[in-house]
Each structure stands twice: as C-alpha cells, then as structure tokens.
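Chapter review: from sequence to fold.
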Amino acid sequence: MFGFLFDFIFPKRSLQGEEGKLITEEERKRMRVDPVIETSNELRGRDIEYLDRIRAAVPYEKSPLVKKAIHTFKYKRIPGLCDELAQLISEVVTDDRSATLCPVPLHWSRRFQRGFNQAELLADKLESITNIKKENLLKRVRATGHQAWRGRAERLISVKDAFGLQKGKSVPLRVILIDDLATTGATLDACAKVLKQAGAEHVEAWVVAHG
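The token string follows.
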C-alpha cells in the first residue's frame, strides 16, 4: 500500500522521462553492450601497477543511456536500476568460479549519505547471475571525497593508502573487483594493491562502463 502511494505521489520516470517505469523496453534495447577490455600490458602502459585486467560493458562517453542510468542509480539513489546494470556486466565477463567477487567499498560516511554502496549491490546481483562467490574483502579506511571531480594526479593522491583488508579475511588467489565505473583506474589499482599484498595472484575489475 505504501509503495502504491509513494509511486502515486512520486511517479517512476524512465531514463528519457516516460512515466511508470524506471526503464522502458525501447531504452533497454538501446543500452547495447559494447565491450571494453584493458589487458595487463595496456594498464601497465598507463601506470596501473597492480590491476591485471578491466572488463567493461560499454565505453562511458559513447553510451549516453548507460551513462544516465549510472548517474541515476548512484546520485539520485535509485537502487532499482542495479539489475539492469549488473546484467550488462554479466554479458561481457567470463565464467571464473575459482575467483571471488569483491565490491569496491565506500567509506561509512558516504554509504550513510547515499543509503547503499552501488558496487555492493552490483556484486550481489552478479553473484546470483554468475554463481561466483561474493565476499567483502576490503574496507575504506578514510574518506576520499568525490573522485569524479578530480584529475588523474589528484585521484592517485586521494586514494593512496585509502583501503585496507577487512579484519580476519583470507584473500583468495583470484579476485574480481566490482564497481560501476572505471575512469583513470586509480581506485581499482589501490584496491588491487591491498589484495596482492595480502596474497592474491590475479586481480581484475568488472564494471558497467569505462572512460
């Protein structure tokens, strides 16, 4: 009953403003997968030291509807878009059940403000789609602010020593970091550094968009 009243007062609107749904069938068809894969050699070429691969469903700037979906999901706090975004990721990844899914953590203050960690919601959904185990291996030990507003040099500084291992966690040999977006790769690389120092041999990232 409450949900009905809420939808009546604040009707759902799709990515293009259509009332009644978070996403229409037409929008869903337009959110086509266009994989972006960065290999270890490519990452090392731009000074990403620890991360071994990035797999993204789409290039960020060339996928306007996905870009809007990510922004709506994260900044307008619409967790209902998670399933659509996780499905996009699932279409470009491999079946690696020897690995463990690990969401990129938020600082507690940002999580409180947003109400959820978008990376954790994506990881939960991907666990159900892929049957790859998910585990929260990492914690963010200090707030780093909004990365989207920073250049590469500032991002590298802001995430330095910002992550740590959750107490009592044993790190598997293969870890897959989950997040919504990869830009410079600084955050993902900072996470990969902690994981490799704790014993991981291969760390890659699965994200919705790259760029």
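Two observations follow directly from the output. The domain at 31-210 is CATH 3.40.50 (Rossmann fold). The beta strands are 36-38, 53-59, 100-103, 138-140, 163-165, 174-182, 202-210.
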